[in-house]
């Protein structure tokens, strides 16, 4: 990762996208093939270009690509890439979209879905379903990331829990990344809510990218619960006009979660 723009000063002409291989973090998950499907969804809140007449156009852009892609895009490079269009003229939105799409697909090695929102049509902000565990007491001291803090309890049918205290750290700059996590599933073992909160708190000094943290949470739940079905969604707050939302599912998802949550 030494060639990434992240964590260093960059010149005005450094606007290319940086790809980060998923393999490095996934090798540490210790499961092949990986027992999940999913996608990464980005919200770009500061997307703008000029029309053919020089008039600015602004959009809320959602970028989505499959979790099976060999690479993720690094966020600082994506910010600089999108900002490079601020003073560039395009005939119409389709021309702009095609240029962004070509660059992203070449970087990620997979197909990419772009959805544009404007002031008349935008994603809704919603309250996460299920039970919030944040009001519970911790089960004990927390001294760094520890999967053993997570415990199962007997259960029947489905479970649906969420938390807003997720905090992890960038592996390059060690800057904090803040977010919410929504966990739902089905099986004979459910997460003990207090242990789930304690486990999530253990990420507060953990260094990894957003996508890898989501997959670590998924795998730890998968090993602890051995569920019939499981889904983990992380909703991170924005930085540099972008936020990242990894979603992982035991089965291929039937729909895309586009809504925003509190703090996004």
TrEMBL record:
One of its GO terms (molecular function) is preQ1 synthase activity. Pfam families: QueF, QueF_N. It comes from the Bacteria. Signal peptide: none annotated. Residues 14-113 form the NADPH-dependent 7-cyano-7-deazaguanine reductase N-terminal domain. GO terms for biological process: tRNA queuosine(34) biosynthetic process. This is NADPH-dependent 7-cyano-7-deazaguanine reductase QueF. It comes from Sulfidibacter corallicola.
